[in-house]
Design a protein that fits this description.
Blueprint: H1 3-29, H2 32-37, H3 43-63, H4 69-90, H5 97-104, H6 108-116, H7 130-140, E1 145-146, E2 151-152, E3 155-156, H8 164-171, H9 178-187, E4 191-194, E5 200-203, H10 213-238, H11 260-285, H12 309-312
Antiparallel strand pairs: 1-2, 3-5, 4-5
Helix pairs in contact: 4-5, 4-6, 5-6
Length: 314
């Protein structure tokens, strides 16, 4: 086979991959027995329900241990109602409470409550997680404060009354052990254990930081970039073909693990060169001054795979 024919065949394969990638990816996400159990389910709905756990798992991996489930649910309620309202308006329907309840699957009383708060998604820092709430109570509840020092008291670990155990019981409840809470706060350098005649707990920081600042920044960037990728996809769903924006991916299922680091180095060089070209393109189109009515546009690059850092030795 000639080189030209080989290249042409390879390009044809890549083109096929770009057309079939969503179908292949969807099949890889769900086990065969699960697919069989859903026979008769509408194909479009089946595709969505298969991909959602994959997407949500990635999001939860970033959120777990930082934002509690109840807080996330409250945020989702507000966003569901707000986006439901926008969708009804876009389709020419009146966004009544009844229509919103139907499109979101919520009770009309919940919809009314969310609308009364103007679909507010603001998070009270003291409610982000049980740890935040515990620290806030420790610093604000007169019972757990040292009034001579005008701050949180140093608390004995166990016992009734003014103790760390009582604080945990009041804020978090009996289902979580005191040791679990202490270990979590110790790991984040939020508290210090004082070993004397009676073991005591001292609050070191009034700000709970479950992740380091660099991880927090990377988390923000990750969510921001993910939202942009999804934004491009949503735009393409609602746009005519000639107005769709580039939103594609390429991958192989046949990479030997021992060559992963080599591939990553090559991918990094490729992307670095493309980033420079993208910056040059943006500079050519960017206006000198910020003015009302200007648009925000951008290009993104990333490399992904079903690997974990520890599996590659880096």
């Amino acid at each position: 086979m000639s080189v030209g024919v080989t290249v042409a065949k390879r390009k044809a394969t890549l083109k096929w991959n770009s057309v079939m990638q969503a179908e292949i990816f969807r099949k890889d996400l769900m086990p065969n027995d699960s697919q069989k159990s859903r026979r008769g389910f509408p194909t479009e709905a089946l595709s969505i329900t298969e991909v959602i756990p994959y997407l949500l798992r990635t999001i939860v991996r970033l959120l777990v241990g930082t934002i509690s489930y109840p807080v996330l649910i409250e945020i989702l309620k507000a966003i569901y109602v707000e986006e439901g309202e926008k969708k009804l308006i876009r389709t020419g329907s009146k966004p009544t409470k009844s229509a919103l309840a139907l499109i979101t699957g919520m009770d009309t009383r919940v919809v009314s409550s969310v609308l009364a708060n103007n679909c507010d998604t603001t998070i009270n820092p003291q409610q982000i997680s049980p740890e935040y709430t515990l620290i806030d109570t420790w610093c604000s509840d007169p019972f757990f404060m040292d009034h001579s020092a005008e701050g949180p008291a140093i608390l004995p670990v166990e016992g009734r009354g003014k103790t760390f155990q009582s604080l945990v019981l009041k804020v978090i409840g009996r289902n979580i052990t005191v040791k679990t809470v202490m270990d979590r706060l110790l790991k984040s350098n939020t508290i210090e254990i004082l070993n004397g005649d009676t073991q005591e707990v001292k609050l070191l920081s009034k700000t709970y930081t479950p992740v380091t600042s660099d991880i927090a920044k990377l988390t923000d960037i990750t969510f921001l970039e993910a939202s942009r990728v999804m934004g491009a996809g949503i735009h393409n769903m609602n746009a005519v073909p000639e107005e769709r924006v580039p939103q594609q991916g390429r991958w192989t299922y046949r990479l030997a693990p021992e060559r992963y680091r080599e591939f990553r180095r090559e991918a990094r060089l490729l992307i670095r060169n493309q980033i420079k070209e993208g910056e040059d393109l943006l500079e050519r189109f960017e206006e000198e001054k910020k003015q009302p009515g200007q648009l925000t546009v951008g290009i993104g690059w990333y490399q992904w795979g079903d690997h974990e850092t520890q599996e590659t030795g880096e």
